[in-house]
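@channel sequence for tomorrow's demo:
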Amino acid sequence: MILSPSISIQAAPFAALLSLTTRQPNLPGGYVSVTAGGEASLLLDSPADVEAWREALDLPADAIACDMSRAQQTVKLSVPFGTTQVRLWAVLAPRQIARAEA
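structure tokens (generated this afternoon):
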């Protein structure tokens, strides 16, 4: 029987998310996932939420990337936090896609 990696691999991403939430308790929350490979992901409700996180983390505006190549267009921000990569992202609504393409 082949076992999956131990949950201890996920300790760093969980710690990173806990640290971010205690440092920035008023920022928008989202849907959290942590991969077995040690990456944390926070799906936010809107691009404005991604922007709020970017501003709070004092990152430059060009840190946000738009991915218009897939059927589900997204805005995303990837933040190294200790040994963990924290990915913040949101799906663009159809009206937002039309504005982004204009």
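heads up for whoever presents: The chain has a mean pLDDT of 84.
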